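Marked as duplicate of an earlier ticket. Keeping the data here for the record.
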Amino acid sequence: MYDQIALVLFQAWRRSILAVIAIGWCASPLMAADNGYNEQSLVDVGLVVFDPGIPVDQSTHSKRGIFPDIREAEAKYMPVVLRQVFIESGDWGVVRVLPEVLDSSELLVTGTILQSDGLRLQLRINARDASGVEWLNQMYSGSTKSTDYPVSVPGDPYLELYQQIADDLAAVLRQKSAKQLATIRDIALMRYAVQLAPTVFGPYLTQTPEGEYMLARFPAEDDPMMARVIRIRNQEYLFIDTVDEQYERLSEEMASTYNLWRQYGAEQAIYQSEYEQRVASRGPQGRRGSFAALERSYNTYKWSKIHEQDLVGLALGFNNEVAPTVMDVSGAVFELSGTLDSQYSEWRNILQRIFRLETGLVPAS
C-alpha cells in the first residue's frame, strides 16, 4: 500500500521538481535577516498533546477525581486553548498542536496534567528550542472562584494560567537576538534533514556533551537534496495543519459541556471541603436525613452524573478521532484512517518513502 501511494506521489511531484528546486531556498530560514526582527525570524511553536498524568494504579483514580476518558480528552483540549493564547499574542510564527513529539520543531512545548477539576488546575510545562536549549521548565497552578462560573464560550476559567505560560515564554523570546532565532530555525531544518537522510546531513550538525545542537556548516543554497527536504517538511506541516482543524473542531464541540462539568466539580469540591470542616470542628451540621437535605444532595449528584455521562460521550469521540483525513498532494488524493496519531505516523512513513524514492537513499537501520 505504501509503495503504491508513494509511487503515485513521486510521479506527480517529479513533474514540478525543477520549479521547486529553483524556489525552494527562497523560503528557507537560512535566508532570514540577521539585523532586526521580521516575519522570517519568528519562531514556530509545536504544542504536543499533553501527558494526561493518569496514575497506573486505578484504585487511586476515584479518590483523586480522575476520569481517564475525560482526562485523555483534556490532554488534547488544553493545548488548543494554549495555542489560541499564543496566536493572539502575536509573538510567534506558526503555532501547531502536534499529535506526538516532533524533535525538529523550532520550539517544542510539552505539558503534563498534574491536577484538573473545576476548582484547581496544575500543569508542568517544558519548552526547548531545536538547539536543545531549555526555555521553560515550570509548574503552573490556577484556582477558580464562584464568579468564574458559568463560563461563556469561547472562554476558559483558567485563562490566566495559559496567559502566564505564554508571557513567560515570550519573556525568554525577547532575550534572543534575531540572529539567534534564525540559527534556531536553521538547526530545526537541519535536524529534520538528518531524520530523513542521516548519512548525508549528519555532518552538518554537532552535539555537545550536554545534548545541545550546533551547526557545523550549511548546505549550498542551490542544493537539490535540501530543496526536497524542505518540500517534504512542508507536506508534513500540511497534515499537521489539518489535524489542528480537527482538534479545534472537537474542542469547540465539547467546550460547553466540559465547562458545565467543571462548574459542578467545583461546587462539589467546595461542598465537600465545607462539610469536612464542619465535622472537624464539631460544629452544627444540621438535622440529618431531612427531606430538603436529601433532595439537595440527590439533585446535586443527579445533575453531576448526567453531565459527567454527556462529557464522557464527548470525550470518547474526541479520543477516538476516527474520521478519515483526506489529503490532496500534487494532484494525488487519498484518505488516511484511524486515530490522528496513527494517521500522522502513516503520513510520515509515506513522506519518508517518497524522499527515498526521489533520492535513492537506503533507509537508516
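See parent ticket for discussion. Strands lie at 45-48, 95-98, 107-116, 120-129, 134-143, 205-207, 213-215, 325-329, 332-336.
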